[in-house]
Amino acid sequence: MKIALINPRNIDTTTHHPLGLLYIAAYLEREGHLVKVFDQTVGQTPAEIASEIIGWGPELSGLTATTPQFALALRIAAELKKVLPAVPVVVGGPHPSVCPEDSLASPEVDFVVIGEGERTLSEICAALGSPEKLAGVKGIGYKAGGKPVFTGTAPLIEDLDSLPFPARHLLAQRWYFAPPKIRGVWTKSLITVMASRGCPYRCIWCSSHTLFGRKVRNRSPENVLGEIAEARRDLGVDSVYFFDDTFTVNTVWTERFCELLAARGWKDFKWACQARVNTVTPDLLAKMKKAGCVQLDFGVESGSQRILDILVKDTKIDMIKAAFRHTRAAGINTFASIIVGAPGETREDVLKTSELLAEIRPDYTEIFYATPYPGTRLYEIAKESGLIRADISYDAWYVGKQIDKPMVCFNGSEEELVAARTLLQNQVLARNLFTIFKDPGAIPGGIAILFSGAAGLLPGLKRFVKTGNFENILVEVLKSYRQNLKDKAQAGK
């Protein structure tokens, strides 16, 4: 069967592979299907990408969607249905998994995949045309006689080593690997890798557990290293960013991985990952450093213990301070993410965050607004507080530095929240810039980015004037640079 897998993109400054789609593509290829991945570029209209897909002639189209992507996914699906009304449209990913009923209610959608998609989409393909077989596919929603049918929860994939490596050959264009990817470290070619699925923690703004569950399922260290070795051989990769929710949650696994990686003797290899402050020790950090780890991303969130407790972060301020002290001593760069606008947050809490940042001195820091997405406790709190409007459009509220104002205000005014975020972002700006350019390779690279992304200067200046946040200029330049990479590649230059 010819299967088109589609990644909608709206506001975007990244060029990472759509890793989930590439896992599904690899699984379907192994099952004998012909697969093509269509990764929408920013600025490409739904009609334009749909025209490409229609020209290829799929027998089934599958779209992935986070909540900010979902409205765009539906617009692409509508364009496909205009020309290919008989070709099934399947939607999956984070948003359909937490809002399956609403997702299936869209007239453009024939199937919803709830949870992990590799095995489930393969089973849909095998069951098409047979109502009896479809009813036996767990983890889906579909329409029968105009009515929605849901088949119950699908079991999680326990043996992640059984999955084929992501089908990166389907999206091998250079822009997916181009720097910068790890803040402060200029590598030539980077891929993202997932070594595990699942997260046991309870953070109220996160819905990861709805897709991957709370039980952590690790791939074997040998399997992960096999994927990296293949990418080094076939794609010239010299660095990896691990997308695991918490790479260090299983200390025994992490230590074994580091030992095996160090034994490979890849002198040029560098990597970074996400960690929690309560999962790192000096001994573990030393092993990670020896194995080539150059950056750890920590969710600090707040300098107020009261706010950390409201967010159900399950960390303490002393843990944060110790983790940053030990990581710096190990010679590994530190990244901190901060949330502004949590329920109950006051200006005093924001000032405590400012004081903590001054003490722990992260090498790089990003500030995000608390954004209530479906499937999270934060969303329920927002609903209970009457803050979720019926006409809300999530595609306008991308969680990241691309937005200039909060989606909701749990307390305080919009102006106060914008001012709080700007205060913190400008506080860390100088250190962020120093981190970016302290690697000698970043100087010529940075100049190239500035010239290539010059079209982003004016939009960035407009955002700066609006918010007072200087980093908005850098964000827009980087976004323009990455879009320029894609445009040149597609033009054959």
Describe the structure.
The chain contains 19 helices and 15 strands. With 493 residues, the chain is α/β, with parallel strands linked by helices. It folds into three domains: 149 residues, Cobalamin-binding domain (Rossmann fold); 262 residues, Aldolase class I (TIM Barrel); 54 residues, no CATH class. The strands form three sheets. Strands 2-1-3-4-5-6-7 form a seven-stranded mixed β-sheet, with helices on both faces. Strands 8-11-12-13-14-15 form a six-stranded parallel β-sheet. Strands 9-10 form a two-stranded antiparallel sheet. β3, α3 and β4 form a beta-alpha-beta unit.
Binned, the helix content reads 40-55%
Shape: globular
**How much of the residues is beta strand, in percent?**
15-25%
Number of strands: 15
Give the arrangement of secondary structure elements.
Blueprint: E1 2-7, H1 19-30, E2 34-39, H2 46-56, E3 60-64, H3 67-83, E4 89-92, H4 94-98, H5 100-105, E5 111-113, H6 118-127, H7 131-135, E6 140-144, E7 147-150, E8 190-193, E9 196-197, H8 208-212, E10 217-218, H9 221-235, E11 239-242, H10 251-264, E12 270-275, H11 282-290, E13 293-301, H12 305-310, H13 317-329, E14 333-340, H14 347-360, E15 364-369, H15 377-384, H16 414-437, H17 442-452, H18 457-467, H19 471-490
Parallel strand pairs: 1-2, 1-3, 3-4, 4-5, 8-11, 11-12, 12-13, 13-14, 14-15
Antiparallel strand pairs: 5-6, 6-7, 9-10
Helix pairs in contact: 1-6, 2-3, 10-11, 14-16, 17-19, 18-19
